[in-house]
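Q: Predict the assembly, please.
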Amino acid sequence: MECREVDDLLGAYLDGELEPAVSTSVRDHADTCTTCRQRLANLESIGLMVRRAPYYQAPAGLRARVIHGRARSAATPHWLAWAAAAVVVASLTGSIVFVRSARRALDPVDAVAQEVVSSHVRALMGAHLFDVQSTDQHTVKPWFLGKLDFSPPVTDLAQAGYPLTGGRLDYLAGRPVAALVYTRGQHTINVFVWPEASDAVSSSDARVIRGFHVRHWVRQGTSYWAVSDVNDAELEQFVHALQQ
Amino acid sequence: MTLRGPQVDFVCGPGINLPGTESQKKAMPRSFEEVVLPHLDAAFNYARWLTKNDADAEDVVQDAYVRALRFFSSLRDENARAWLFTIVRNTWYGRFPRRTGSAVVSVPDEDAEPRADIGLNPEAQMIQQQTVEQVRRALETLPADFREVLVLRELEGLSYKEIAAIVEIPIGTVMSRLARARERLTGVLVPAN
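A: Predicted assembly structure:
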């Protein structure tokens, strides 16, 4: 093979796209030809360099929109979207003011707590407790990949006496959330996790709803709800272990 | 023909369903969530390099997913990622049809000009010293047609055959376009002195 011929094939050679016989010819030529060998080195360094270019990850907002299928129409001008957002913000602000003035009759946190308990009960009654059943956090956590617009923290607490048994997708507070399932003896503990817009850190907030103990806390931009029929002290201990 | 033939390219594994074979009939139907959603980052990365800005890339990917959902039943083989890239690309060029034309006109694929001699080792060293930001800028200065084949090849690791299908050009053109793209990139990163 001549240099000119080899030169045209160097890229395909590096990309592994040549037939074996041709590939061997190119290599043999490069072994004996300094010029072609240097070109090969340059091409290789270009490849290495391009592979260092940024790999853009889909923003969380886009992921959420795609997952929810709430696709904005391609024809919607940006100003219209902004106007719509402004209307939503205005109405939300209005409703918050209204809720406060109504003496927290419709406290949104209480409403979520009710949903959390309902979901816990539904899961236990309807036998759909797991989408992924595993005691291995390295199996459960990746299962959520691509199914949610966030990656839920998943830790096994078997050491503390609360083994992880699996997880599932759930829908709470108007969004898809991760539900992690732990057990304590015969009891099931559901932990619901989703990102919290505010950076507020709250300590555990306890309540009892329809006989179930409920704990809620926010940490590192993540909202946690734990619900179970275990006794209050055990749930407190569980929450403490989870927060470690 | 010196490139690998299609019979070689198709030797992939038991997961690939060739048209009309038993394996296709037996294939389990899989959901959009399982098949297409996992490639969201790849779709965004490709769109981001095509459009060169976040807002357009997000719009394109979102539209592409709407289309992908609509056409999901037409996805036959296992290569959902390449299929999704095709939709992303068509969405982008469907919205701005002029971009394809201008890029093709300004960047003829034929090797009309003689190649610059790039066979010096100090250049390889210079290339290695480029920062991520310099690489990003250099890639963005390339014509879109060159940039996309580099991204599909180097960042997504696609074969020439897959790239050819997505970009709708012959495999030989993929090879020459990649060669020209790499050469141009060398020119941008290592200014003639």
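Chain A has three domains: 3-50, 59-106, 107-243. The two ends of chain A are 66 Å apart (CA to CA).
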